[in-house]
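Hi P.,

Sorry for the delay on this. The queue was packed all week, but I finally got your sequence through. Input first:
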Amino acid sequence: ATEPHVWWDNNKAILPAQFDTLLADFQAHAADKDLYVQDLIGGADEELKLPTRVITEFAWHSLFIRNLLIRPDAAELEHFVPDLPSFRADPVRHGSRTETVIAVDLSRKIVLIGGTSYAGEMKKSVFTMLNYLLPAKGVMPMHCSANEGAAGDAAVFFGLSGTGKTTLSADPSRTLIGDDEHGWGPHGIFNFEGGCYAKTIKLSAEAEPEIFATTQRFGTVLE
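Then the structure:
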């Protein structure tokens, strides 16, 4: 059972039968749609990585998650993240609070995202799954940025969203490990992702030239 291992502070529990109904309704809603599929990896540690299949309704969501996670040579799929922004949950039928739903089945490693076009929900869903799985393997998941010096010394920057983690880690004199989500395990610090998730508000070429330059590159997603 997963219930004792979850911090329920602002999360709402639903019954397994309600999740099954939601999954079936997702599948029915997606039956006549052209979907985009990405097979990716969450976690750069070879012994701890989480192969992930992400199924999206929007092409730009597929590009977003392809940019952000790690692209594998081959993946043995373990969990799925269907993302259907046009789907609207029924609070009575599905046990959700509103028509927007991010439902997680930790036992089966399935996440269902509906009723929202915010691409960050996919990223945070993978982070949530790793937050649940990795502590049992001796890894501390961290919402942080990290970089490495020439001597192999690592620096970790903690902070809430928008407090400067990405900016601090993008030091031209050091090697970037990652800008948002990491694990600290037996082999050291490793990135959960393969891309950068920077805030664009007040972003300028003068203040943050390395980050600003990425906004001009082919394939970059600005949300």
